[in-house]
Amino acid sequence: MLTSALLLTSLVAAPSSSDWQAPGDHEHVVPRLSRRTKRVFTNLRYEGNNKALRAPFEDHAPACSDAERTRALASRTGGLFLLRDALFSQQDHPVQRPSCALMLPPNWVTVAVHDAMAGRVTAPVIAPALDDDEAWRALGTPAALFGGFPTSDSLHDWATRERASASEDDRIRIDNARRSVHTLAAAGERLRTASAESPEAVARAGAEIIARSDHDYFGGAVRHDHVIPLFVENPSEHEIVDEGKGLVVHGRTLSPEAITLTRREVYRRRLRDGAMAIERYDITREGDVRRAIEVLEMLVPEGSGRGHHVYVWVGGPLIAGTERVEDVHDRMPEFVAALSKADIEMSRVTVFARPVFQSRGKTRDDLVAATDRARTQGVLYGVNMNTSALRAKMEWPRRSATP
User: Fold this and answer.
1) How many domains does the chain have?
2) pTM of the model
3) Residue 187 in domain
4) Strands annotated E in 216-344
5) Could you give the CA distance from residue 383 to residue 392 in angstroms, rounded to a whole number?
6) Is the link from the previous residue into 235 a cis peptide, with omega within 30 of 0?
7) With 0-12 CB in 10 A as exposed, 13-18 as middle and 19+ as buried, what is 363?
8) Is 231 within the bounds of a domain?
9) What does DSSP assign to residue 45?
10) What would the pLDDT profile of 317-326 be if each residue is shown by its tens digit?
11) What order of strands is seen across the sheet that includes strand 276-282?
12) Which helix or strand (DSSP H or E) is residue 112 part of?
């Protein structure tokens, strides 16, 4: 367990007397949440943006303060979707904030599994003493720093800058980056040690490291009952190349067997601790539909009985130059029917229909029509609004969450 995680309180926040409950026939609606959120609908699931949940750098907030705030907010909701699947796509920022429970990127596990299958031990991350500028400066390239693991130009750049002559703010960033490297190096050593046993042992070790970081950041109870970590299981080329998402690594060929083993162990282990979500699947593409079915059959096969839930985020093709997808709600019943015919325990699966409703320029009638359609289809539906904006737009009467 990371030492900084011990700073987190184990208390779960009770619903605020100012919180609301949404009408029961709208529990499929998913609004947005940020660090400035004051009120929530206690019976709704929310989508949280990592950047919006972090304190700004200028606040110089202590380690784990973001985690404490996120934990308290999540515990008042019906569930909180949070992207947690890559080095810079998680709640901790490796440079801008002091890490609380930095997550090992899943593709690091894939690389170590791939190497173990080939009879190799992945070259280690080099992590000099925090104040040894000369040793850090000697690591002239990302590959020299990260060894055989996936590299990060940004993290390398900050970690290897000269600390002694840096401004006060840059020194903080350098320290954050170097501590992040130390965390990654320690995780890498656990993977390297496991490689002496078997590729399966490497995958299991990586899965435990990732699950442990979830627990340390959110706390076991909040992770189990409220937090829904989101994996980009089917990343776009941009997400692979520029953001390091998914189980693959840009520019490297990893064996399909290593990817399959890593996916199975990491995903199943995370699912033991609570619900999880996977994205994104273009349901107009046969290959994406088949891929979603195969992953769900692995995670929640038919007859698996009671267990934690898997949310699968789907939509249409990506809109060029954006992270948004085209609206293909007319294809949603067909997709749900395809899942129902597969070897999937549908009682443990919920479809999250994209795109998120954009409220600007739209009327209440537009919103009601979209949410009613989603309810009829039996899918979740996101709205780009916070609690108060959603309540006002829908003209819902105020109903307190507490008597």
Assistant:
1) 1
2) 0.93
3) no
4) 227-232, 276-282, 310-315
5) 13
6) no
7) exposed
8) yes
9) E
10) 888 777 788 8
11) 29-30, 380-383, 349-357, 310-315, 276-282, 227-232, 79-83, 45-48, 32-33
12) helix 106-117
